[in-house]
Design brief:
- The chain is mainly alpha-helical.
- It has a domain at 32-84: Recoverin, domain 1 (Orthogonal Bundle).
- It has 4 helices and 2 strands.
- It has helices at 5-35, 45-48, 54-61, 71-88, and strands spanning 43-44, 68-69.
- Strands 1-2 form a two-stranded antiparallel sheet.
- α1 runs antiparallel to α4 (71-88) and α3 packs across α4 (71-88).
- Bound molecules: calcium ion (CA) (2 copies).
- The site of one calcium ion (CA) has 7 residues, from β2.
């Protein structure tokens, strides 16, 4: 039987959020190092320019306003993005209506 895509998506998102709580730090830092091309320990705007969504939240995530993201700010950017994604999803419908006919 096929699960409605929306339910799968919702479950995946909920799971991802729990998972992200614990994993965000280590995963983000690995990604961070990869993105930090000049290895100065910060992500400049150019270094994230190819990432979808990050440039849009760059200023919001740049808490100290120095024009670059440190690892903590990068995690913040991810979180902002995640929230934006969740918000852009259509509101979750409750249990699917039972339309089975017997
Ligand atoms: Ca850098
Ligand atoms: Ca900063």
């Amino acid at each position: 039987m096929k699960w409605p895509l929306l339910i799968l998506l919702a479950v995946a998102m909920a799971g991802a959020q729990f998972w992200a709580e614990g994993q965000a730090q280590s995963q983000a830092s690995a990604w961070f190092r990869k993105l930090d091309r000049n290895r100065d320990g910060y992500l400049q705007r150019e270094e994230v320019s190819r990432l979808r969504g990050i440039p849009e939240v760059f200023d919001e995530a740049d808490a100290n306003g120095d024009g670059k993201l440190d690892p903590e700010e990068f995690v913040r950017a991810e979180a902002i993005l995640q929230k934006a994604k969740l918000r852009s999803l259509p509101p979750q419908s409750k249990a699917p209506p039972r339309t089975e006919t017997r």
